[in-house]
UniProtKB/TrEMBL annotation:
Protein name as catalogued: Response regulatory domain-containing protein
Keywords: DNA-binding, Phosphoprotein, Transcription, Transcription regulation
Any single biological process term in GO: regulation of DNA-templated transcription
Modified residues (4-aspartylphosphate): D52
GO molecular function, one term: DNA binding
Hydrolase among keywords: no
Organism of origin: Labilithrix luteola
Domain of life (superkingdom): Bacteria
Transferase in keyword set: no
Length: 213
């Protein structure tokens, strides 16, 4: 799995964001523009980037980070967090294909962004990621439930998911009960069949080599 970069200079906000996103991906934290730029230069395994707009004395420092991120990783999902949403900020973020969230931000607000991160990490084709997003909305899946369904659709096994995510088997079973109920399925096989029928016509799923290992 790739890493998620979170850039936030406020300790309380960083802890809050960390509690949410660390449940889904390995997180690398930075508290300044320079630290974040250094991480972007030294690593290439990013699956998502979540940045505060104003960092210390550098107003709009988040945009400096996003500009560099877009140069190096144009397809990685990015999101900007700000305490005051303004039209100019939203418009500039839109030119970078970056979502904008107002503080305080919680798991519900970050749900769509986290699903994009998961889809990116599985290297799903854009059309398939869009269909999976729609299916997730229809079934009202949480980001974690979405990740599990995405993992199964990508042809991976339960044991492999438990190994890579570090999730306890009892927790996994609880999530699966919720997914079965929401999807109207009673088994792994039925769930996968339902999902594949909804997601595919004649298109094939594309995953990266790492996801298959």
């Amino acid at each position: 799995m790739g890493s998620l970069l979170v850039v936030e200079d406020d300790d309380a906000t960083r802890r809050c964001l960390g509690r949410i996103v660390t449940r889904y991906r390995v997180v690398r934290f930075a508290s300044s523009v320079d630290e974040a730029l250094g991480l972007l230069e030294s690593r290439t395994d990013w699956c998502g980037i979540l940045v505060d707009l104003n960092l210390g004395p550098r107003a709009n420092g988040g945009f400096e980070i996003l500009e560099r991120a877009r140069e190096r990783f144009p397809d990685v999902p990015c999101a900007l967090v700000t305490g005051q949403i303004e039209v100019a900020v939203v418009n500039r973020a839109a030119t970078m294909n970056t979502a904008v969230f107002g503080k305080p931000v919680g798991e519900a607000e970050l749900g769509a962004f986290l699903r994009r991160v998961i889809a990116r990490d599985h290297a799903f084709q854009t059309s398939l990621a869009t269909r999976l997003e729609a299916l997730s909305a229809e079934w009202k899946l949480s980001p974690r439930e979405y990740e599990i369904v995405a993992w199964l659709v990508a042809g991976q096994t339960r044991d492999a998911y438990l190994l890579r995510s570090g999730m306890a088997e009892t927790t996994f079973r609880t999530h699966m009960k919720h997914i079965f109920r929401k999807a109207g399925a009673s088994s792994f096989a039925e769930l996968l069949s339902l999902a594949l029928r909804r997601l595919f016509s004649n298109e094939e799923l594309t995953t990266n080599d790492d996801a298959r290992s």
